[in-house]
Design brief:
It comes from Parnassius mnemosyne (clouded apollo). Its cofactor is a divalent metal cation. By secondary structure, this protein is of the alpha/beta class. Helix content is 43%, strand content 13%. Strands 1, 2, 3, 4, 5, 6 and 7 form a seven-stranded mixed sheet that branches. The longest helix is centred in the C-terminal third of the chain and has 25 residues.
Length: 269
């Protein structure tokens, strides 16, 4: 509830302290800030330190905690993924190795006009930072990109992050219609893109296409559930606007949140 770590995994705090030499209370301060989006005034009262010191501790320690937790976001071998496939994937979609989608985080309007333009999201009608998130069919986060301005399209993000470098030939990616322009690039790398059939304006889908759309939507639900878990960290909630000063460590916040949800109960019961 308070730090995003279950009782069974609470030993991580001790491990973090031992490997990073960060005070245990300071680790808890950072995790509580991410989980509950507590103001620095609240943290000042909770931990008996000054407001400016609480802010300094958060910004200084977050990259260190992030580098310790990053190994929990593991890019698994496709054969290992296939051995642990959920039943829904096993018949027609046994080649799917990952499901991808983009996550947008609202941020404060930047002071510079160039940054305002780069982070403006037409979809959200506000300034955002965008991340590509990939999970395995059983809901384990196996990749998260660095942040891109909200102006960047889903395809641009995939092209400019190192996601494709970690994929093996013959991999099959599940995505929504927004990634359709990625097909050619993936084909050249020997990777298959599986997505719902495109719909032309005024045209109707055939019965087969409707059925396929429903099946793919039911399988893509796992990435939506992963994103919902990420949003349970209140700093990353919908309409929880990130302060300009914290934007520089937002990549680390996302990595910590994704690593911690990989330690939670499995999405597939």
């Amino acid at each position: 509830m308070y730090i995003g770590i279950s009782k069974e995994c609470y030993f991580l705090i001790e491990l973090l302290h031992r490997h990073t030499n960060i005070n245990r209370e300071h680790i808890l301060l950072c995790l509580k800030k991410i989980r509950l989006n507590s103001t620095f005034s609240e943290l000042e009262d909770n931990f008996g330190i000054s407001l400016s010191y609480a802010s300094k501790l958060f910004l200084r320690n977050l990259p260190i905690i992030s580098s310790f937790l990053k190994p929990f976001i593991v890019n698994l071998d496709k054969n290992l993924i296939k051995r642990n496939l959920p039943i829904a994937f096993r018949h027609n979609y046994h080649n799917v190795s990952c499901i991808i989608d983009c996550l947008e985080i609202d941020i404060q309007k930047p002071s510079k006009a160039l940054h305002q333009a780069l982070t403006w999201s037409e979809y959200k009608k506000g300034n955002t930072v965008k991340y590509l998130i990939s999970c395995t069919p059983n809901g384990l986060v196996n990749y998260v990109s660095q942040g891109f301005g909200g102006r960047a399209s889903d395809v641009t993000i995939v092209e400019n992050c190192n996601f494709l470098d970690g994929l093996q030939q013959g991999t099959c990616i599940l995505a929504d219609r927004g990634f359709k322009h990625l097909e050619q690039i993936l084909h050249e790398k020997g990777i298959k893109l599986l997505r719902p059939p495109s719909v032309n304006a005024g045209a109707k889908l055939s019965k087969t296409e409707v059925r396929q759309t429903k099946i793919i939507a039911s399988l893509r639900i796992h990435i939506e559930r992963v994103i919902r878990r990420v949003r349970e960290f209140h700093m990353l909630k919908q309409h929880s606007v990130i302060n300009t000063n914290i934007c520089r460590v937002l990549d680390h916040v996302i990595i910590i949140a994704c690593a911690l949800i990989n330690l939670q109960d499995s999405l597939i019961k």
